[in-house]
Design brief:
By secondary structure, the protein is mainly β. The chain has three helices and 23 strands. The two termini are about 30 Å apart.
Length: about 350
């Protein structure tokens, strides 16, 4: 973000909007919305019928005022849009999820997603998606979903069938997966007009904690080099033995001396007890139960310090779990300068 816009941002939206009106243009009212996104287009590449494919357009509220999405529409049913959160406070983030509809649409497709904002001022951001959906190859099911897996453990194997419906000489030459995943390939059948392969995958104990959205590369012997590489979408959740939410804890813009009350939810894979909660300063006070439970609540009271500036503190929750019994949550916010009388 350039310095000139940062300076305008400090003045607030009213100043930005007034400058746009005074100049007789429509640039500023639209530009504030575009600056929340880091990219505006995605090429899904070659997809096959029945394949699940989606892409995320993340955006972040950079401003003091609330940002609200009024509506999202698509110019083509080949791409179905969805937003993870419609109202964003300062510093909060959300995603526009674009899902490819490979069941009802085939061939080359393009879609424009129109994201319309109602707050703090009307604006529209356009996102573009491109894809080519093949008619001769089918994935059943359309993706590999591992569900929820405990961190440090191997998942159950999940299979998907890839079939070519018109060529008997079609072959999958190799598959390539992320290093935390194990993949095997087996030919199921070969007939004059149809070939089927089974692809089996499982997560290894080294899989990273969090939501997994990745792909497996399938390299084929298609004559057209542009169609040789196919991608199987992989998704799942690797859950830590213990977790806390919300994480991070966003408290937004606060005034000196203000008291902030929040609740933290700590959840484990098995019953546990909170031994202690380590806070960064005396501004924080916590209360929690001493009984053992799979879900624990922590009542948090934060008295905002007098010194203006950014807040980025870490709260550490210690439990009696034998391993990985520590969980952390980051507190993020900003202390405003006192208004001059």
């Amino acid at each position: 973000m350039d310095r000139s816009f940062l300076g305008l941002r400090r003045l607030g939206y009213a100043a930005i909007f007034a400058l746009g009106v005074a100049s007789g243009g429509e640039v500023w009212p639209q530009e504030w919305a575009r600056k929340m996104f880091d990219h505006f287009s995605h090429d899904f590449g070659v997809l096959v019928r029945g394949q699940k494919a989606e892409h995320s357009f993340p955006f972040r509220n950079l401003y003091v005022e609330d940002v609200e999405i009024e509506s999202i529409t698509s110019t083509c049913g080949c791409t179905i849009p969805e937003v993870t959160k419609r109202l964003l406070k300062t510093h909060e983030t959300a995603e526009i999820i674009a899902r490819a509809n490979t069941v009802q649409f085939l061939g080359h497709k393009e879609a424009t997603l129109r994201v319309r904002f109602s707050k703090p001022f009307p604006a529209e951001v356009q996102l573009h998606c491109y894809m080519y959906i093949r008619t001769d190859i089918v994935f059943e099911p359309g993706a590999i979903n591992f569900g929820t897996v405990t961190a440090g453990k191997e998942s159950q194997a999940v299979t998907i069938t890839a079939s070519h419906l018109t060529r008997g000489d079609w072959r999958i030459l190799k598959v390539q997966a992320p290093e935390y995943m194990q993949v095997s390939l087996m030919e199921l059948s070969r007939q004059p007009g149809r070939v089927s392969y089974q692809l089996q995958a499982k997560l290894l104990p080294t899989a990273p904690v969090g939501y997994i959205r990745d792909t497996i590369l399938v390299v084929t012997n298609d004559v057209d080099s542009r169609l040789r590489n196919l991608y199987v979408q992989v998704e799942g959740v690797v859950a830590p033995p213990i977790s806390v939410r919300p994480s991070p804890l966003m408290i937004g813009l606060v005034n000196p001396g203000q008291k902030i009350l929040r609740k933290l939810v700590v959840q484990g894979q098995a019953p546990f007890r909170i031994v202690s909660v380590e806070v960064p300063s005396e501004a924080y006070k916590v209360q929690f139960a001493e009984e053992s439970s799979q879900v624990q609540l922590i009542a948090l009271e934060f008295t905002v310090p007098d010194q203006p500036g950014k807040i980025r503190d870490t709260i550490r929750v210690h439990t009696d779990l034998p391993s990985d019994g520590l969980v952390e949550v980051v507190v993020i916010g900003e202390i405003l300068k006192p208004e001059k009388e």
